[in-house]
Amino acid sequence: MFAAPFIALALAAVAKAAPAASLCPDGVHSTINPQCCFWANARDRFINEIFLNVCQENVHSLVRIAFHDAIGFSLNSDKGGGADGSIIQFGDTELAFHANEGIDFIVDFLEPFANDVGMTFAIQFGAAVGLSLCPGAPKIPAFVGRPNATRAAPDKTVPEPFDDPTTIFARMADAGFTPTELVHLLASHTIADQAGVDPEPSVLGAPFDSTPFSFDSQVFLETLLVGTMFPGSGPNPGEEQSPLPGEFRLLSDKVFARHNLTSCTWQENALSQSTMASNFQTTFTKLSLLGHSQSSLLDCSEVIAQAPPATAPKAFFPAGKTHADIEQGCATQLFPTTLSTQAGRATPIPPVQVQDIAFGRK
Ligand code: HEM
């Protein structure tokens, strides 16, 4: 047993060792590393001017573009420089690719930032800041200082929802990701909606789960429910029947939820919010570093806040659905009967609204 004075001394030593933040030259922000002052200011600009302080459409789009930019990378051939901002810098080329349809509006928002802070940072740094606004999301480290892109990524580096699973697994493996890591990344579809798979106005912004503003496990649970309807004009290429009016299901998500290489990780994510968040944190960080070495970058993670906790501690069946609606995917572990059903009457899932930005649309 240690004596109390010894513990007090030890604690004091630890407290003394912890580096203190000092005031930045702008007189507003404080950082431990003075080189991160610039990024503290960039964070506030993202939050106030682009995200309007909420985890809504502009955060969703930024997380999506972070994937589309980074995945332009290959371990085996020359497919682009990874997370290098090429999707903005060489937007004339990359935004014309089918898989990037609908991403141009966030590029319009980002361009003024990209010019101020560098293309890559505007994307990967912005995604880390955006996720900090989504309840339940893990803290994504902010590594800054990447050089800008020197070339466009070629077409066909971004998977499409109508691609067969073998093609998607092969593309992800080519960029260095296993099927399990793909599932970890797909936690991002918990804050997601569609506009391009079914362009019908009634499903513009139709979300992939019933809680698109919270980084929770719902998308993994809800993609396991029996599909019963197409919410808009479907079926469209890359679309599958969804279980709830207003909700949209990608064919690829349906397939991964039931595929023998991915279904058990999928179920694990449905059942554990903390496992899902921690695996996403590791794999999204790996994605954001594609094409770069972490040791050559400056770590300004200190300016990224921890998101608030998820609104519900674990997944639930949306009103009207029960365990009987689960289509068992994982062959080695049955989906448990312990999750409860949300109280009340089943109501259509509302679409995610398009957001403006503080300085207005162009
Ligand atoms: C198999 C791989 C994937 C496929 C086939 C896929 C496909 C799609 C599609 C078709 C959309 C709807 C786009 C629209 O119509 O506007 C979408 C949205 C989205 N995806 Fe993926 N995705 C994949 C992986 C990922 C990954 C790895 C991430 C991030 C790490 C990601 C993040 C998002 C986000 C955040 C949205 C919502 C965008 C918004 O609401 O504006 N996706 N995805």
Write structural notes for this entry.
By secondary structure, the protein is mostly helical. The protein has one domain: Orthogonal Bundle (Peroxidase, domain 2). The chain has 13 helices and eight strands. The protein has helices at 4-17, 37-50, 57-70, 86-89, 91-94, 104-117, 119-131, 165-174, 179-185, 218-222, 251-258, 263-271, 273-288; strands at residues 22-23, 30-31, 143-144, 193-194, 206-207, 239-240, 249-250, 298-299. Strand 1 (22-23) and strand 2 form a beta hairpin. The longest helix is centred in the C-terminal third of the chain and has 16 residues, at 273-288. It is globular, with a radius of gyration of 21 Å. The N and C termini lie far apart (67 Å). Residues 57, 60-61, 63-64, 67, 102, 159-161, 168, 185-186, 188-189, 191-197, 238, 250, 252, 284 line the site of protoporphyrin IX containing FE. It is an enzyme of class 1 (oxidoreductase). It comes from Exidia glandulosa HHB12029. Its EC number is 1.11.1.-. Keywords: Calcium, Disulfide bond, Glycoprotein, Heme, Iron, Metal-binding, Oxidoreductase, Peroxidase, Signal.
